[in-house]
């Protein structure tokens, strides 16, 4: 007889619940990273992590261009 480790979990813990928790964790991490990206702070400290950076000044934000590259498919 095999011992299943999931026998001690309540009935409402199923794959949908676990997937929802993973999705919420991803959204929280993404929101935090977006906050850091848009922040005007020079030094950001959170949970033992320290980030020193030089954000763009307001007048330089108008001159920012984003270049994209397209990948060519091999033939």
Task: Describe the protein in words.
The chain has a domain at 12-55. 32% of the residues lie in helices and 11% in strands. The chain is built from 1 helix and 2 strands; from the N terminus they run αββ. A two-stranded antiparallel sheet has the order 1-2. A hairpin with a 2-residue loop joins strand 1 and strand 2. 0% of the residues are buried. The model has no long low-confidence stretch (mean pLDDT 78).
Topology:
Layout: H1 15-38, E1 43-46, E2 49-52
Antiparallel strand pairs: 1-2
Keywords:
single chain; 75 residues; alpha+beta; two-stranded antiparallel sheet; 2 strands; 32% helix
Entry summary:
The chain is of the alpha+beta class and 75 residues long. It has one helix at 15-38; strands at 43-46, 49-52. The chain has a domain at 12-55.
User: Tally the helices: what do you get?
Assistant: 1
Pattern of helices and strands = HEE
**Spatial order of the strands in the main sheet?**
1-2
Please compute the radius of gyration using only Cα atoms.
22 Å
How much of the sequence is in beta strands?
Answer: 5-15%
For the sheet with most strands, the description reads: 2 strands, antiparallel
| Helix/strand class | alpha+beta
Helix content: 25-40%
Report the strand count: 2
Tell me, briefly, the overall form: flat
Terminal Cα separation, in Å?
54 Å
């Amino acid at each position: 007889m095999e011992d299943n480790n999931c026998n001690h979990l309540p009935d409402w813990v199923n794959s949908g619940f676990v997937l929802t928790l993973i999705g919420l964790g991803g959204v929280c991490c993404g929101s935090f990273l977006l906050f850091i990206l848009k922040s005007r702070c020079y030094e950001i400290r959170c949970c033992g992590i320290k980030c020193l950076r030089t954000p763009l000044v307001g007048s330089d934000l108008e001159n920012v261009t984003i270049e994209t590259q397209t990948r060519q498919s091999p033939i």
